[in-house]
Amino acid sequence: MSEIGVYRLNTGSCNGCDIEVFSVLATRFGLGELKAKIVEKPEQANVLVVVGVVTVKMLDSLKEVYAKLKEPKVVAVVGACALSGGIFQKSYNVLEPTDKFVPVNSYIPGCPPSPQVIADGLAKALKVKYREWPAPEGFRGLPELDAEKCTGCSACEMVCPAFAIELVDEGNKRTVKYMYDKCINCASCEEVCPEDAVHPARKRHPSGLDRGSMGTSAEEELAKCPLCGTFQVPAKQIRSFSDRIIEKVEKYNKFREDIERAAAVCSGCRKKIANIDSGKSILFKLMMSS
Amino acid sequence: MTEIIKIGPYHPLNLEPEIYEVTVRDDKIVDVEIEQGYTHRGIERLMESKSLNQDLLLAERVCGLCSQAHSTAYCLTIEKIFGAEIPPRANYIRSLVFELDRLHSHYMWFVLLFHTLHEDGHLIRILDARERLMDLLEPICGNRVHFSINTLGGVRRDVSAGMLNKVKSLMNNLTKLSDYTMKALKDAAPKLSGIGMLSKDKARAYGVVGPVLRASGIKSDIRKDDPYDAYQEVDFDVPTEDGCDVFSRALVRARENFETIKLIRQLIDRMPKGEIRVDLGKPPVGADSGRVEAPRGELIYYAKLNGTNYPERVKLRPPTYVNDRAVVEMLVGEKLANLPPILESLDRCISCTNRVTVVDERTGRSRRISLDELRRLK
């Protein structure tokens, strides 16, 4: 079998993925094992590696290079930016994601993915076996969510700079979705999680063949608002912070049920509290509902 | 015969994809036009829409090779506005990672230089040795390229004593690698000497920064001129060269590698113990600027806060932006074959010449030539 040519196209990357793709050339990663080499012209290549967000000005070049590839055409996208736009999502000059413009065979997540993962992704795109690499201690991989501990409080969603965390409320269920195609490995979610439920994995996450399936999620039950009956606040979060209140002030223990019931009131009903009288009437309703 | 050669916009290893339109008459370059904006991602506008902490992660992702430079410059600027003092140990850790970043950036530059010169032996050797450094950055910071170790008010992670020892012992290996790089560079001197001249006066006029400026004989280094982090507490020299050519720029970087290793050893020996992070409190109203010496030169950040968690304005001036203008001065009058190393000497990447379009002005015909063909023009 002849060697496969790999051509890299920077469509607006920060250079981080570029140097990591270049580092794959280092002997230890065994690009030779994959029978692949990096070529200088798109006409010599089967495999196109796209790095970086697609900027408005680079879109034509991307299409041009894709058209020049030899058959069969294989496209691997490297890094959060190329997968989904990463931290640059919603910018006026960024067109995301790359797979809207060219068909993609292999998705390599990370910001940037280490050369080990890039080599693995290339191997997958070429349907060749490749070895597994361990990750060192302290490695900041993609976040793993502990569904047991997660309360669905949305703290991580608020700090995530890359919109990689999404809360979807459906009926009385809340799904906390972590999307690895958007994650930029910053571990902000770990820093902010009050329940210690998110940790970056100490492993090199493998590349995927499908963007949508890359991720992890947890399901939370939502408590019913005692006034209007809508579902808004996760039951586990109510329990968790009631615990914390009682831990601080022990004598509130006997009001536990009241605290939990008041906490389940949805934001819509809270907004209706215009003055002390309406507050009192809501409290009265709450007491009646118990 | 006059030809216009269009280089770009796609070129796999370039920092900023852009087009160089080079007009050539009788194999001499007579004019250069630069067209930028191919990696414009709207970062300054994005920064206004993200919170201060998120902006730090965004600042880091402006550039993959100067990751730590951007995040340090951003932190310095914002901390100045907050009026915060950050703990000494955090300063040392920032500087340590900064210098490791500079080392891996410079080694990468040499890899790219030898790639341009088609000396694959040197390329693989340096790339392999550089992996040892990356292997240490990974456990220290958690990532090989975007370190995310800085945070507003300090650093996010402490570095253990065992890890510091590992870094220190790695420095012996890297000294050998730097010796090797120096030797390989001196062997390549005939190809690099006397091309891409940028005289001292011109360097000052164009306002170039970093190694390009120092190779034109002007001593300028923000770490010395306006010390930040822990740089006022360590001793190091700022190498300068008077050659003003491509070789001098390479030599400055090769000599900087030794200085950086010296710096890292001192930073580890003098690293104080204590806190690594302070709480900054509520965002104030105010504006300030900060600057650092990135591997490519002076990097300036400006920020204006309005008392909310979202900045009103963030402006940055990266080093390559000013250096890029000087390329016109360097290229005009040169042979076309010398174009790759001259562009490379700015510490921007030259695989752009993978795709060169030659337009014959008289016939209007255009043809594309590869890097190899360009090399054969010599």
Protein architecture, described:
The complex is a heterodimer of chains A (290) and B (378). By secondary structure, chain A is of the alpha/beta class. Chain A folds into three domains: 4-125, Rossmann fold (3-Layer(aba) Sandwich), CATH 3.40.50.12280; 143-205 and 212-221, Alpha-Beta Plaits (2-Layer Sandwich); 225-289. In chain A, 30% of the residues lie in helices and 21% in strands. Chain A has helices at 16-23, 59-68, 79-84, 115-125, 155-159, 188-192, 235-248, 256-263, 267-271, 276-289, and strands spanning 4-10, 36-38, 47-51, 54-55, 74-78, 94-95, 106-108, 143-145, 165-170, 173-179, 198-200, 215-224, 231-234. In chain A, the strands form four sheets. In chain A, strands 2-1-3-5-7 form a five-stranded parallel β-sheet. A four-stranded antiparallel β-sheet of chain A has the order 9-10-12-13. In chain A, helix 1 (16-23) links the parallel strand 1 (4-10) and strand 2. The longest helix of chain A is centred in the C-terminal third of the chain and has 14 residues, at 235-248. The N and C termini of chain A lie far apart (75 Å). Chain B has 378 residues and is α+β, with helices and mostly antiparallel strands. Chain B has a single domain, classed as Cytochrome-c3 Hydrogenase, chain B, CATH 1.10.645.10. Helices cover 47% and strands 16% of the residues of chain B. Chain B is built from 14 helices and ten strands. Chain B has helices spanning 43-49, 52-60, 67-82, 88-116, 120-141, 161-187, 189-192, 200-206, 211-214, 222-225, 246-270, 319-331, 339-344, 371-376; strands spanning 2-7, 19-25, 28-35, 150-151, 154-155, 285-294, 297-306, 313-317, 356-360, 366-369. In chain B, the strands form three sheets. In chain B, strands 3-2-1-9-10 form a five-stranded antiparallel β-sheet. In chain B, a hairpin with a 6-residue loop joins strand 7 and strand 8 (313-317). In chain B, helix 3 packs antiparallel against helix 4, helix 4 runs antiparallel to helix 5 (120-141) and helix 4 (88-116) runs antiparallel to helix 11. The longest helix of chain B is centred in the N-terminal third of the chain and has 29 residues, at 88-116. Chain B is globular and about 65 Å long. The interface between A and B is large, with 56 and 59 residues.
